[in-house]
Specification:
Chain B: Keywords: Cell membrane, Membrane, Transmembrane, Transmembrane helix, Transport. Chain B: One of its GO terms (biological process) is transmembrane transport. Chain B: InterPro entries: BP-dep_ABC_trans_perm (IPR050901), MetI-like (IPR000515), MetI-like_sf (IPR035906). Helix content of chain A is 69%, strand content 1%. By secondary structure, chain A is mainly alpha-helical. The two termini of chain A are 40 Å apart. The longest helix of chain B has 34 residues, at 262-295. Chain B is an all-alpha fold. Helices cover 71% and strands 0% of the residues of chain B. The two termini of chain B are 31 Å apart. Classes of the chains: A mainly alpha, B mainly alpha. At the A-B interface, helix 2, helix 3, helix 5, helix 6 and helix 7 of A face helix 3, helix 5, helix 6, helix 7 and helix 8 of B.
Chain lengths: 311, 298
Amino acid sequence: MAQAAAVAKPPAPPRRRRASATPRRLPYLLIAPAALLMLGFIAYPVVSVFYYSLQDYNPTKPWRNGYAGFDNFVRIFTDDPVFWDTLVFSAKWVFVEVGLQLLFGLALALIVNQTFVGRALGRALVFSPWAVSGVLTSAIWVLLYNSQTGITRYLADMGIGDYGTSWLSDTSTVFPAAIVADLWRGVPFFAILILADLQSVSKDLYEAAEVDGASRIKQFWHITLPHLKDAIILSTLLRAVWEFNNVDLLYTLTGGGPAGETTTLPLYIANTSVDAHDFGYASALTTVAFVILLFCSMVYLRLSKFGGDNK
Amino acid sequence: MITKEATEAAPAPARVAPAPPGPSKRRPAWDEVPRWQIYLPLSVYLVFTLIPFYWILLFALRPAGSTSLVPWPMTFDHFEKVWTDRSFGTFFQNSVLVGVATLVMTTLVALAGGYALARFDFRIKRGFMLALLCSQFVPGALLLVPLFEIFAELRMINSLGSVIIAETVFQLPLSMILISNFIKNVPYSLEEAAWVDGCNRMRAFRVVVLPLLRPGLIAVGSFAFVHSWNHFLFALMFLNNQEKQTIPVGLNTLMSADSVDLGALAAGGIIAAVPVVIVFAFIQKWLITGFSAGAVKG
């Protein structure tokens, strides 16, 4: 019946709604639970962070609480060397992690996309650290880096590194040590995403290229890589944001040390709010981190021409 | 009519993964990569991947103080100790509760929202989509303080509910985008056919759409579970009572002790990994399909 009514009216668009015979409120009802949860537990906290960033707010020193104007921001940019150190370290951390994860992930995806004996097992094993948590990764690598009983002792036996100090407590080795631990867990993420996208490349393209006598390297550059472009841009961006924000691994593996050597900006913020209870200042730092993140993401999407030519 | 259409459509997702070429067929030329170029780098990488797993297994199974490189004689003392003395039994229960509740809430709420996004045009849709995407940039770790204050206000500090809500909220945006993409892949005409046959919207959704969403829902639900199982910071912040803590917090406590009991840490780590390994083995075959259907391709 409803169908007949829709047919009688020439313009097509209203047909959908009419055919369903459901109230127009339905979509709003459906998104309401999600919207309410996100308003209450994401939007409201974000707004309150902006609000606190203009306040002196420290529950342990209530006599100083009150409106502070832009004092917190002035302090960040003019009077806080730790902020700049952590910002530089964050950039270094994200850049090295995402770059290496992409490189290894891409290589692995290309390999396990081939047909070979034992492929299913190979894939399962390659992907396995993907689901391991940051804390568990830390636990595993604490065992591996232990100076007495860890794998590093056996490496020292073979002449790599020295006995005595754990790689995690030496300022000259802590960065590569933490990078390797996070790589171990991070590479499968890229391998999975890129493999998924590789499976949608049309095989005809390769066959045509083969007929034209293109080498496998040429095929990679001219067929595979352009096809993967959007997936790579999106996954590197998501991963970069994630690597920047995620504090689980460094918090538990190095605690930001030794000597603040591995403190990222979010870790610094967590310490400022959790240990020092300086909520106002931590909120200002959060605001700055948020703006930096948003700005970098936009620049990245613009520069990489996301969704540009193959749509 | 409905059932016929539904069964006709059902094989479609399965076709995403093409059947491997049979042995009788000639291999296409582009597939002829020398075997060593596959096995050599793969083996090198697998050594890197598997040694850490072996190492934690070794520490968990060999007696304290042993330096043997094989877990023999084998002992389960570390597991017993960690499960009872270090209350990993309690932590395990709490983590299961948080994980399952997060899975259920995330899937239901995201399913409703995802359906609205996939099937309706409504006034705030664009704004809502934008909000979902932007929320991806909001780091949960940086909202710890305001979230703590909200939960304190709601008197939910030290209750697992606070962690469940926080985990769900941060899982929601991506889950909803994924599910709405899965729903878009189900032809609308299937639903319309069901309405013609007299189903209301709810029934048409349940009978026609829901069965086709299975791989996607399994992927989304498993992510929600694994993510909340693994996540550490919310539980660390919102649960101060030792009775209420979760496995990752327990692991962190073991690690930050003055003299770390390596055997207990390893056993605790394995307890933390078991459910994730089970889920992972279970969803493996859906993982790639689920991803390619929803995650990267818009």
